[in-house]
């Protein structure tokens, strides 16, 4: 079984400790979802003051920016007076932003580049993840031990709470994750840390027959998968090849389109929740299985939806971006950090009774699958090796009959041979053999009219128009 990760004894021991920590905090985590609004508010204020105190005393970059701020007298209401920060700020000042001097961008990048299909700890403590974000520009994020546990708990607490609400025995059940292969991406990294004897992981980059065979073998009760992978799995049910009966389905990373949601309900009668994960806030929001939408991780994060100019956007209106303040991860203080996701806060209280605010399910289109003569290839085959190359700032993958052409904007000289080998190998494992990958370093990658970069351009689109702008 080639998808089983190679885990060193040392990292295996750390993983077990992390899993024990998660089990220990879960009862409190489940209760938090039903905390009254005032209690949540007090917790946020307490954590915000602690974050600002650490940032001001231990981060050179923040110390300068926060010099007129008294952390002891700041409340969430005053947040809008603090300066915002961007991914450019983060990447330009990384070493001055982090509060542990040992963690430098160079070391974080080297760690990322070394990850091979498994979880690993930097300095026995930290996780490092990279993100392209919807804008396509790369960011590097380091997570401390406890925040990583909390990020994992936000996923699990909604499942356990729903089990209790449905009168089922709460606790660990057989879980399968169809997620990123390499732990450079948040979904893959979490699945890797918290993967136990009951939790199975199937890289989304495997050929579909292998994923189906694996799922049939382990019979997951909870199925956690990319929305795009769920769309394909439902087809396998219709074809009679996938024979599982998950009770709960968690759709991650991408929008769950209405057709897929209906097909999941028809196929499995499963309870469904969407999960919105970001490298900046881990499990940023997750559904409660009782209603549409997702509850913000309100005790851990402050999310401010804003318009193009940074002015607040009210409930019911869609934002153009948001500012995220991560209250739990002081090693990398993200304070009013700009994230380019569009969200809509829902004003109606949720049927489940939680006072944690909700966001509407993330809309938009899925990253396009590439279809090579009937073999569908998930974008992760490209995303994962590209995310591991430190010098690649942004990229666009264009499907070609012969394989793919990849435009890359770089800050240095990426190892082109290594990158090409990794992608060709990924394609081969996904069932597409003998293709070539043309890597081109460019000054500029054309954008869509919205200003966003379309990262994956399938063949039909590329063939039908002069460029990717039409998407
Ligand atoms: Zn709810």
Read across the widest sheet, the strand sequence of neighbours is 4-3-5-6-7-8-9-14-13
SS elements, strand count? 20
Quaternary organisation: single chain
Percent of residues in beta strands = 15-25%
Shape: globular
Tally the helices: what do you get? 13
Considering DSSP H and I runs of 4 or more, what fraction of the residues is helical?
A: 25-40%
The kinds of small molecule bound in this structure are: zinc ion
Task: Report on the architecture of this protein.
This protein is of the alpha/beta class and 471 residues long. Helices cover 35% and strands 20% of the residues. The protein is built from 13 helices and 20 strands. The protein has helices at 9-32, 37-58, 60-65, 87-97, 105-114, 145-165, 186-193, 208-218, 227-238, 258-268, 380-387, 416-429, 459-464, and strands at 127-131, 139-143, 175-179, 199-203, 222-226, 248-252, 271-278, 282-286, 294-296, 301-306, 321-326, 337-339, 345-346, 358-359, 370-372, 375-377, 392-400, 403-410, 436-441, 456-457. Strands 4-3-5-6-7-8-9-14-13 form a nine-stranded mixed sheet, sandwiched between helices. A four-stranded mixed sheet has the order 19-18-17-20. Strand 5, helix 9 (227-238) and strand 6 (248-252) form a beta-alpha-beta unit. The two termini are 39 Å apart. 48% of the residues are buried. The model is unreliable at 1-7 and 462-471 (pLDDT under 50). Zinc ion binds next to loops.
